[in-house]
Amino acid sequence: QVQLVESGGGLVQAGGSLRLSCAASVRTFGRYAMGWFRQAPGKEREFVSTISWGDAVTYYGNSVKGRFTISRENANNTVYLEMNSLKPEDTAVYYCAAASPGNWLSDKYNAHQYGYWGQGTQVTVSS
Questions:
Q1: From the CB of residue 116, how many other CB atoms can be counted at a distance below 10 Å?
Q2: Roughly how many angstroms between the first and final C-alpha of the chain, as a whole number?
Q3: What percent of the chain has pLDDT over 90?
Q4: I need a surface site. Which of 42, 52, 116, 117 has the fewest CB within 10 A?
Q5: Do residues 113 and 107 make contact, with C-beta atoms less than 8 angstroms apart?
Q6: What is the band of 40 on the pLDDT scale with cuts at 50, 70, 90?
Q7: 45 in helix, strand or coil?
Q8: To the nearest whole number, what is the mean pLDDT of the chain?
Q9: Is the pLDDT of residue 1 over 90?
C-alpha cells in the first residue's frame, strides 16, 4: 500500500512560483513512477507531469512545459513539482499519484493508470 501526502500549495500572484512536495510512505518508492495531475472546478483531471522510476525520465503536459519541473528524491521518498511563471489558469487542486511500472508504460498520461493518490493541495494564482 502506498500513501501519498502533498504539501506546498497556497495563494500566489501571477508570475510567481511555488514548490509542491509529495511524501510517500512505502519502502519501495524507487520502484514506482510518480505523477502530478490537477483538477480545476468544473473541469476534468488534467495530466501535469510524470517521472519514471530508475533513470527519472520526465514528461510534461503542453500547458506547463518550460515552466514546471518534476523531480524525485528516492532517499527521502519524495517527489517535487517546481512551478514557475504561474498563471491564473494554473489554479487547481494538485494531486500526486503513483503508478506501477507496467501501468505507467501502458499510458503514462492517463490518470487511470495510477493506482495511488494523495488528498490534493490547492494552488490559487491571482491575476
A1: 17
A2: 40
A3: 96
A4: 42
A5: yes
A6: very high
A7: coil
A8: 96
A9: no
How far is Cα of residue 21 from the mean position of the Cα atoms in its chain?
8
Q: Give 54's contacts (C-beta < 8 A, 6+ positions apart).
A: 30
Residue with C-alpha cell 493518490? 117
List C-alpha distances in Å: 127 to 14, 20, 22, 32. 5, 20, 27, 36
DSSP E strands in 25-86: the ranges are 33-39, 46-51, 58-60, 68-73, 78-83
What average pLDDT does this structure show over 61-66?
Answer: 98
Query: Using 50, 70 and 90 to split pLDDT, how confident is the model at 98?
Result: very high
Residue 58: beta bridge partners? 51
Q: Determine how many CB atoms are found less than 10 A away from the CB of residue 26.
A: 15
Taking the C-alpha atoms of residue 10 and residue 31, their distance in angstroms, rounded to an integer, is 30
Helices first, then strands: H and E counts in the chain: 1, 11
Q: Give mean pLDDT, residues 33-40.
A: 98
| Strand (E) or helix (H) holding 120 | none
User: Does an H or E element contain 50, and which?
Assistant: strand 46-51
